[in-house]
Write a structure and sequence with these properties.
Structural class: alpha/beta
Largest sheet: 4 strands, parallel
CATH superfamily of the largest domain: HAD superfamily/HAD-like
Number of strands: 4
Order of helices and strands: EHEHEEHH
Helix content: 25-40%
CATH topology of the largest domain: Rossmann fold
Radius of gyration: 21 Å
CATH architecture of the largest domain: 3-Layer(aba) Sandwich
Distance between the termini: 62 Å
Number of helices: 4
Length: about 150
């Protein structure tokens, strides 16, 4: 089996980053199933690198251990070839602020970049829309200035 390496971002992928950066060693709760996901990857032979803009601190390592996040390294890949940049080499990068390049600089890609929002911001907007849905005048039968025929009136 070929050994593969994944770089996993910390903020917004492993821990909740909804409130943004709160301090070097201030962390939100674990994103649900991050521990299970990293454990499965580790069992399948992946080298896991926590690749974050944060410094590697004892509190960060303790948080990862307390939350049972499986990993091999933080912000480094010892198998990294000499004379390369600081970008850690990996087969896969998992990041909440990434867009997958599909091989073409096309309209779809430009639109994805221009309209990009991290998942936390999209989720917050969705929750706000759901809370506004409770308005009595917002009926699925009347939405969009179109009248729908209810099955009971047929």
């Amino acid at each position: 089996m070929e050994k593969k390496t994944i770089c996993i971002d910390f903020d917004g992928v492993i821990h909740d980053y909804s409130n943004g950066f709160q301090g070097e060693d201030v962390f939100g709760g674990m994103i649900p199933n991050a521990n299970t996901g990293t454990s499965v990857l580790k069992e399948k032979g992946w080298t896991i690198i926590i690749f974050t803009t944060r410094k590697k601190t004892e509190k960060l390592k303790k948080w990862l251990e307390d939350n049972k996040i499986a990993y091999d390294y933080i912000n480094e890949n010892p198998e990294h070839p000499e004379r390369t940049s600081g970008k850690v080499i990996a087969d896969v990068y998992l990041d909440d602020r990434g867009i997958c390049f599909n091989g073409r600089w096309d309209q779809w890609l430009i639109r994805e970049i221009a309209d990009f929002e991290p998942w936390q911001k999209r989720q917050q907007k969705e929750m706000e829309q759901l809370s506004n849905f409770r308005e009595p005048e917002d009926s699925i039968w009347d939405r969009g200035n179109e009248r729908r025929i209810k099955a009971s009136s047929l």
